Each structure stands twice: as structure tokens, then as C-alpha cells.
Amino acid sequence: MKSSIKIIIALFLCSINSCFAQQNIKIVQAKTQRVSIKDGDNPITKWWEYLQKDVKPVVYHIAKINQNRKVIFYTDIDSISFNVKPNNKYDFKVLLNAKDTCYAQISTVIPSYYKDCKNCKITSDTIPFTLGNDHYIHIKGKVNNSEIIDFIFDTGAGTCVLNERGQKIAKIKLDGQTDGEGTSGFTVDQTSSSNLLQLSALKWKNLSLTYIDYKGAINTDGVLGYNIFEDKVVEIDYEKKLLIIHSEMPTTIAGYSKQQIRHDLNGTFIQATLNNGVKDFTGWYLFDTGGSLTVQVSGDYAKNNELYSTMKNLGKSSATGNGKGFYQNEIVELPLLKLFGYSIPQVPIHISSSDKSFYGEAGIIGNNLLKRFNVIIDYPKATMYLKPNSLMALSFKKKDSKSLDLVVGLSLVATLLIILIFMYKRRKNSSTILFSKN
After folding, report:
1. Which stretch of DSSP H or E encloses residue 430?
2. Residue 372: pLDDT above 90?
3. In CATH, which of 3.40.50.720, 2.40.70.10, 1.20.1250.20, 3.30.750.24 is domain 257-411+420-437?
4. Is the pLDDT of residue 15 over 90?
5. Which helix (DSSP H) or strand (DSSP E) does residue 5 occupy?
6. Which CATH architecture has domain 124-233?
7. How far apart, in whole angstroms, are the C-alpha atoms of residue 112 and residue 380?
8. CA 95 to CA 22: how far, in whole Å?
């Protein structure tokens, strides 16, 4: 009898505590489903996420940087703020039109993977890949125990994406949406809130995915964003064609050059220097394995530094994004590119002819250049290591071709992904690459 009374009292106390816990959950008001977020010192997002009445909770995955900061969640008529820490969740409610309660959560939790093994200690894991003629890192995987899906690994993308081909294979449930702004327009993309991703023996639960219809513009089924590895050290060995995921920084890094990187809401950025034969121009560039070209320079950066008409012209290219419209690029031969202490001559680069700005930075460095280095990215400590590999001996081909697709992804607030697709023509010719360490 005494035991039964204790159980009843315990249950009663739990019920009381639950009531108080529910009463302490903050509530904000809204008249529309569109919301925006200010993360730390970054400006308020100019894109919009959406409240979802049928998903409990709808999770807004903000940047997973190792920083304590203030995050403000805005509706059209109200706001709520949280002092967030890494690897935490913050629950609240939004009362929509004074009648519908939407359950929401701000998350700084990194979706770390697991393996189906008992008491196994994860120190490092390998994922094989193929390096396609499109310069992309192709990885085979599954979503929700589907048939095989062909992904590309994109260090410029902050979420995982399925395109029209991948959606047909995985048949994911689309239960939300997000606005996206690309260089060529504004789009509304559909999202899927909770999925199982499998790459080799590695699995991720409750993973958010974005669906984007590229209308056959890229030869793949989906994109793997860097967000699934933000708590790890990622090694890209282009020679062995292995992605090696470490829990800690490897101890043997002989021959690598090190640089501090910027890893924020817009992605991972490295410093590089362009030399047009007269002067050095140093800026921050998106480190983008999801980009198939060498270097793309933004129009505002080129204009501010007077780079137009200062280098050998190789032709023109057209660029379009995940939206309407397109703009032109000049293809020029850069006399010298300086990267992580290395100098690479005669690099064909694309300079935007418009005043388009790439995330407020100098531009993008794509995988046609990055594949010539073996790479180690220490995401938790925001550092990167590069070492030239045997692919450095390959020439940059400048021959005519109808088109070559480039996908550029950015990190997002919540499930936002901006993907750009660049089409460009190149002249017949080739140049041999020689590089030197400064």
C-alpha cells in the first residue's frame, strides 16, 4: 500500500512539474506563417522561413558555430529572443491568427551520425566517392531505406537537398517550405522535416531535407551539405577518392599548409589572392566543392578593384541560378593565384559582368581548382589544411563546350539553401600548371 501511495504521489508531482514546464514555454504572436531570424551579429535574414501547424515542433536549424550568442526570432508582429549555446534546443510556441498554436524550436544541435554497432567507439570513418568529369564529389547513399541515390558533397551547402530525380527515388514527405534567394531570383522551396540518411555504414536520424527542382540541369540526385559534419574533422583525399571523417584532428599532417577560415551563416570562406600581372588583390572566397569551375569573382569586387580588361580574355559565359534571369561573365586568364602559401599560374577564372555580389565577399573557389589539393577541414576549430596532390599536374582545359553546370550552395538559417547553376563556354586551348610555394 505504501508503495502504491508513493507511486501516486510521484505521478502527481510529475504532472504538476509538467504543467509548470508547459506554462514556462514562451509564446509569441503572428498573423502570417512567414518568419525571419537574426543570429548573433549577423543581419536579419532577408529570406523567410515558414511556420508549420502540422509539424510538432517545426525546427529552425540556425548556424552550428561554436559560439554563445543572442538569437532573435521575428514574426510579422512580434519577436522572441534566446541566449543560445552550441548543441542545445530552445522550445517556444507561436499563436497564429489568435487561434492556431504552432510548436517551434530553435536548434544549434549538429545532426551527428551513428553506426549500428554496440559499444563501438567512433574515431574515424571513411566514405568512398568518385570524382566525376563534372569535377563533383559523388557519393552513394540512401534516404529512408530507399534505393541508391547519387549525391554530390557540397562544402558550400548548409543543408541536404534532393532534386526531382532524388525525390522520385526517396519519396520523401514534403511538409514545409522555405524562401530562397539566388543570384538570379527569388524562389519558394519545399522541405521535409524528418528523414533517415545513410552513407556507407553511417546514419543520420531526423534529418531535414530541402527539395529543389533543377529541371534536369545537374547530373545527380541530391546534395550533401556540410551541416552533417559540423562536429567533425573532414578529410578529402582526392587521390584515394575517400572522404575520411575524424572525431579529432589527425596527428600526421606533414606537408599541409594551415589557414584560419571563416565559417558562418553563409558558409565556409578562405582567403585567396589574385594577381593580374600588376597587383595583388586579396579577398574571402566561398570554399565550394559543389562548384564545378575554378574561380568565380563577383561583379562588385571586380569593379571596386578595377579588374575588368586587365587580363587576357578567353571568352564569355552565361550564369543562371535557382530563379529567373541570367547574367554574363568574362572568362579571363589569371596570371597568378595565391592560395594557402602556394602560387598557381595561368588559371582561367570567371568575372561577373554585372554588379552581382556573392554573399558580400570576393567570390567562389570551385572544385576544378580544389581537387588539386588534399584537404582537411576542422569545423569545430574553424581551421583548414591544404596539400597539393598529383592532380596539380593536370592542365586547365580551355576548350569550347556547350555547357558545364555549377552548383553553389550556401549555409542557411533553418532549412534555407541557395543553389546557383552556372553555364559557361570555354575556348579551345590548354595550359600546363606549374605551382610554387611562396
Report:
1. strand 430-431
2. yes
3. 2.40.70.10
4. no
5. helix 2-23
6. Beta Barrel (2.40)
7. 13
8. 15
